[in-house]
């Protein structure tokens, strides 16, 4: 049950960071430092989520 809660939290964070990254990319450009920072954070969160899934 705890793993499900953690995955739900990760999904919420992923959605939040993805939204922020898109907003930054749209307003400041894809090469802006803020956009890249969000992209890197999103990569880390996605990797965390992917490694939490057990097949």
Account of the protein in words:
The chain is an all-alpha fold. Helix content is 85%, strand content 0%. It is elongated. The mean pLDDT is 93.
Could you outline the blueprint of secondary structure elements for this entry?
Blueprint lengths: L1 H27 L4 H20 L3
Outline:
With 55 residues, the chain is an all-alpha fold.
Number of strands: 0
Low-pLDDT residue intervals, each spanning 5 or more residues: none
Q: What Rg is obtained from the alpha carbons, in whole angstroms?
A: 13 Å
Could you give a short account of the major beta sheet?
A: none
- What's the helical proportion of residues? over 70%
The total number of structural domains is 1
Q: Provide the β-strand percentage band.
A: under 5%
Mean pLDDT: 93
Distance between the termini: 17 Å
Q: Count of helices?
A: 2
SSE order: HH
């Amino acid at each position: 049950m705890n793993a499900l809660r953690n995955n739900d939290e990760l999904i919420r964070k992923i959605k939040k960071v993805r939204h922020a990254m898109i907003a930054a990319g749209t307003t400041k450009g894809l090469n802006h430092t803020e956009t890249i920072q969000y992209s890197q954070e999103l990569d880390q969160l996605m990797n965390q989520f992917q490694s939490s899934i057990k097949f």
